[in-house]
Amino acid sequence: MTDADPYMQERHEMVERQIRARGVSDPEVLEAMRTVPRHLFVPPDLQRLAYQDRPLPIGGGQTISQPYIVAVMTELLELKRSDRVLEVGSGSGYQAALLGRIVDRVVSIERLPEVAAQARKNLQRAGIANVTVIVGDGTQGYPEEAPYDGIMITAAAPGVPEPLIEQLAEGGRLVAPVGNRDVQDLVRLIKRGGEVTSTTFGGVCFVPLIGRHGWRERFYDDLL
Ligand code: SAM
What we know:
Layout: H1 8-19, H2 27-35, E1 56-59, E2 62-64, H3 67-76, E3 84-88, H4 94-102, E4 105-110, H5 113-125, E5 131-135, E6 148-153, H6 162-166, E7 168-179, E8 184-192, E9 195-204, H7 218-223
Helix pairs in contact: 1-2, 2-4
The structure holds S-adenosylmethionine (SAM).
S-adenosylmethionine binds next to strand 2, helix 4 and strand 4.
């Protein structure tokens, strides 16, 4: 970033105080968070809040997650440069941008076309060119580019969608918030020798993953 970046100082402080001080230590994750301009991924009137320790609304009832949670989930993927990564829930595109700084290839799926369009714009403004944002139901994954070494779901899932487990490469890691619509646990699956092991980390709170292998829309729930 150049001196012209008005938020560089705040961003570095965010990494030191909110991320490193709480135990995230992967140098690639920390460096990505120091360089990706988070303020370009929030609505203009919220830019001054972009480096605070909290999620923010991005329109369409969706959110950009708290920086610390983004960092923890990224670290749990244990990425290396050559990994292929799938993100489910593009939102603002910020998480995908970080992933794109760490690995060569990222596919991100977003179910809401207008949210996906804004994510693409944000990524372009931030100069991230190795992320493709696709509109679709991410609970079905994206078989066209499978298998993936890393899969991250950034919306609350009732369980890990089976197609995503199938699209995980041997040795691949999947990180997701799994629970009910109000509160979830962060879960990491690792696929080894065709077997999948699961580890649970702390509690989190995400907007719902809506789709064939996720939740139904509240609108339809209410009608039933
Ligand atoms: N990763 C995002 C970021 O960096 O800003 C934050 C994601 S936001 C918490 C969750 C996103 O998941 C929303 O944009 C929502 O529309 C999307 N979503 C929900 N269900 C989905 C599905 N089945 N497939 C793809 N996206 C989905």
